[in-house]
Amino acid sequence: MQKLEELPFDNTYARLPEAFFERVNPSLFKAPHLVSFNPAAAQLIDLDPDEAKRPEFAEYFSGGRQLPGSEPIAMLYSGHQFGQYVPQLGDGRAILLGEVRNRQGEKWDLHLKGAGLTRFSRDGDGRAVLRSTIREYLCGEALHGLGIPTTRSLCIIGSDEPVIRETVETGAMLVRLAPNHVRFGSFEVFFYRRQHEHLKTLADYVISEHFPHLVDNADRYAGLLMEVAERTGRVIAQWQAVGWAHGVMNTDNMSILGLTLDYGPYGFMDGYNPAFIPNHSDHHGRYSFQNQPDIGYWNIRALAQALSPLITQGDVHKAPEMYEATMLHHYAALMRAKLGLQESQLDDDTLTTDLLALMHAGRVDYTNFFRALGDFCQETGANDSIRDFFPDRQGFDRWAERYRARLSAERSDDRERKARMNRCNPKYVLRNYLVHRAIQHATQQDYSEIERLLGLLRDPYSDQPDMDEYAAPPPDWGKGIVVSCSS
Ligand code: AMP
Ligand code: MG
């Protein structure tokens, strides 16, 4: 385990052409203090967790000191926001401090979000508020706990610095970890500027760092695109299966590694509603829960277009199809697993969609229903506690009869099935009201709720004694909380 000053940096992105980034240092935060530290993420970079106890820790991650070997840069990218191309975005309030190689040879970006102004800040102030850093910190770890590919977070550093949003809040910085922060928009910027040599350099870089098996492939750029399409299809299928909406699936928020990236106005659904829109600035619901699979397709098309100087027209068209096939296949498999089915049958799709329609009509709690379905009893048919989720009891009875027949056709054993279902139907998810409560406490300098959620969500599939209240649907005050983009 290493000390902060011993972290071995290997800053590969900073060795790319200067046009790819701006060299810029984080700007100092007054009176920084540690809000939360995540030992699980520290392990990824072999960082000794005791390092968080040193007073210098907060200084290193709030612009007060520079880590030896780091080479801070703000990355250039563009992207499609709500369907419109914006020629230049870039890290407007985040700075890549550098890349640490761990003992396994894995590379982790240390990305400081809220680090101050860069060339790409446009009208923004370069800052992040405590509220939004807590939201990103907790949800990254929550999705990781669920087994969904995502960026991670090492810590939150708070400060007294006022930051103006809809009200005056306090600023904070988040240290985000990911194997890289390359976005679809990182390619789009060079395509639309017709800088095809940079486009090729970036593609070669991503291939050699992250898809080394493609290096000697004559069709390596098409190979890269197809793998990104597959990864994107898988991650979006996972979002759909756990009932999570990202909120701002602009192409600048789409990771080339298929990670969940840039947590803003996201949300887990409580009652099932496919039209769920977590982002209150998304007036037309472009990024509603049910639109995510189609937006994934749209975004892969945008990436294929950006890579078009390097690949054939055939591959440009093939990538979205590849995405769609992967997403549908993976989603169907995940939903079968949520229902505890082990075989694949032709009418599984209708079994799932009919259930979802009933859940929608009754706004049935998505997480709690699937967890409860593990208790479904074929033998006695005594399934009242599950039936009670539905206002339309007869509707559920009709569905339950089909489900029972389907289970019996594959000779499903109830006990064994329940154990299996509990491994894919989480008991705890990061419901909006839980984050909201953690944020309210944190603004009073009480960070205990953050720690509790971090521990809970590390293992969302296990029953955790004394934590039952965290599985409850929202109380009245916590229903329909909307989250704004301004963070
Ligand atoms: P986001 O919606 O957070 O993915 O951000 C979209 C773009 O706006 C990115 O280029 C961000 O860096 C930039 N941005 C967002 N918030 C700020 C801010 N407070 N200051 C400067 N740039 C920002
Ligand atoms: Mg973003």
Using brief descriptors, characterize the structure shown:
single chain; two-stranded antiparallel sheet; 15 helices; alpha+beta; 487 residues; 3 domains; binds magnesium ion; 12 strands; binds adenosine monophosphate
Describe the 3D structure.
With 487 residues, the chain is of the alpha+beta class. The protein folds into three domains: 4-183, no CATH class; 185-336, no CATH class; 339-422, no CATH class. The chain contains 15 helices and twelve strands. The strands form four sheets. Strands 2, 6, 7, 8, 9 and 10 form a six-stranded antiparallel beta sheet that branches. Strands 1-3 form a two-stranded antiparallel ribbon. Strands 4-5 form a two-stranded antiparallel sheet. A hairpin with a 5-residue loop joins strand 6 and strand 7 (107-113). The longest helix has 26 residues, at 313-338. The radius of gyration is 23 Å and the shape is globular. It starts with 20 loop residues before the first strand and ends in a 30-residue tail after the last helix. Adenosine monophosphate binds at residues 89-93, 120-121, 124-127, 248, 253, 262, 264.
